[in-house]
């Protein structure tokens, strides 16, 4: 279901950002995806998986070891809930951006300078 949010966001960036700044805008988008998703995501899912543990192993030194048994129902509910909540937040921000965006007045009526096509004919 990632395509439900990633494709519209990329298309919105490509349509809203001036031609000369599109590659920079896509780079900033991926920076935020990595900072807000790839770094805290595994930590959040690890804590979630650990919280669904029923039986912890004990190391010889008395420290808590690896989990031996998980509550499958609790783990599935938590993981699906976190994933669904993240998607809902993403879609809400996408709808908010769609409602609040106002295109610049000068671009709507005139042709963009970068989109001119120059044709040459050789004889």
What does the model show?
Helix 3 runs antiparallel to helix 4 (72-100). The protein has helices at 3-16, 22-38, 40-51, 72-100, 105-109; strands spanning 53-58, 64-70. The N and C termini lie far apart (54 Å). It is mostly helical. The model has no long low-confidence stretch (mean pLDDT 81). Helix content is 63%, strand content 11%. The protein has a two-stranded antiparallel ribbon with strand order 1-2. It is elongated. The longest helix is centred in the last third of the chain and has 29 residues, at 72-100. A hairpin with a 5-residue loop joins strand 1 and strand 2 (64-70).
Give the tags.
two-stranded antiparallel ribbon, 5 helices, 63% helix
Oligomer: single chain
What class do helices, strands and sheet pairing give? mainly alpha
What is the terminal-to-terminal distance?
54 Å
What average pLDDT do the residues reach? 81
State Rg: 24 Å
Give me the strand/helix succession: HHHEEHH
Low-confidence stretches: none
Number of helices, where a helix is a run of at least 4 consecutive DSSP H or I residues = 5
The helix content, as a percent range, equals 55-70%
In which order are the strands of the major sheet placed?
1-2
Q: Can you tell me the overall shape?
A: elongated
The largest sheet is: 2 strands, antiparallel
What is the beta-strand fraction? 5-15%
Number of strands: 2
């Amino acid at each position: 279901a990632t395509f439900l949010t990633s494709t519209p966001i990329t298309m919105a960036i490509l349509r809203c950002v001036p031609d000369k700044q599109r590659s920079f805008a896509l780079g900033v988008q991926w920076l935020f995806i990595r900072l807000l998703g790839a770094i805290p995501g595994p930590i959040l899912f690890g804590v979630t998986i650990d919280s669904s543990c029923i039986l912890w192993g004990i190391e010889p030194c008395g420290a808590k070891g690896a989990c031996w048994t998980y509550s499958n129902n609790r783990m599935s509910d938590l993981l699906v809930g976190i994933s669904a909540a993240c998607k809902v937040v993403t879609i809400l921000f996408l709808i908010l951006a769609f409602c609040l965006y106002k295109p610049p007045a000068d671009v709507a009526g005139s042709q963009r300078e970068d989109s001119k096509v120059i044709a040459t004919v050789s004889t």
